[in-house]
Amino acid sequence: MAAEKKGMLRVEAALDEEQKYRIIADFTYDWEYWMAPDGRLLYVSPSCRRISGYSPREFMEMPGLLEKIIYPDDRDAAVRTIRKISREEGVINLEYRIVRPDGQIRWVHHISQPVSADDGSALGRRASNRDITERKRIEEALRESEAKLHAQNLVLEQKNIAMKEILGQIEFEKKEINQNVSSNIEKVIMPVLSELKKMVSGEPASRCVDIVENGLRNITSSFGGTLASAQLKLTTKEIKICNLIKNGFTNKEIAETLSISLRTAEAHRNHIRKKIGITNSGMNLATYLVSLDQK
To answer: Would the pTM count as exceeding 0.85?
Structure first.
């Protein structure tokens, strides 16, 4: 450590102030330059080659090269801004593109400010150009992604609107179909059933006609739809038994009508009560089913 410290002291002693500042300037990563009040370049850092493709000597020996390499579409606005603010001794802060000798286009962030001597006399401007090409590429990619996302959102919104219109049309047509079915049942089928009831004699046959009539009426009520809902998970046979129970059939009558055993009819009734959720309540199943028809 002591040897290293002595070595550093010898290096510092060998360098005068001008050399120290030149090392700092020459090894800066950004492209730095100092422009005299008359427009001549008094210093250009070597990093200019990495960014612009031109050497410091080319910039210093070719007046106007700084403006010439600005991308044509950006040149007028950039040069006008730089010249205007330079005359006003203000700080210049802007972004523009440059064209390298190999045709590559680079984005630079330019910032410069006036410099002056200890007595206040103008010494020109100190400028720094930073390569922001990669940042611009990311920003452009982000803008494209946002534009694409916006376009996709518009498509989704249009699809949603179209879907709502389709669903609305389907709902309208369903109502229209239901109205037609109800109208046909009421105007066509019910009068026929009324005549059939007059012709049928005997209790079993008459009750069967009543069941058919009530079943048709259930089509236009909430009863059938409620029993067939996915939440209750009633089977087709259980829905049929519910209709019989609602019409006052006993377990024995249900067994005879469906050709099943009495025990099976009782089991079906218990399963129905469990699925409907009135297992532990004192509500009569027939009463509950009648109430569904009134909703």
So the answer is: no
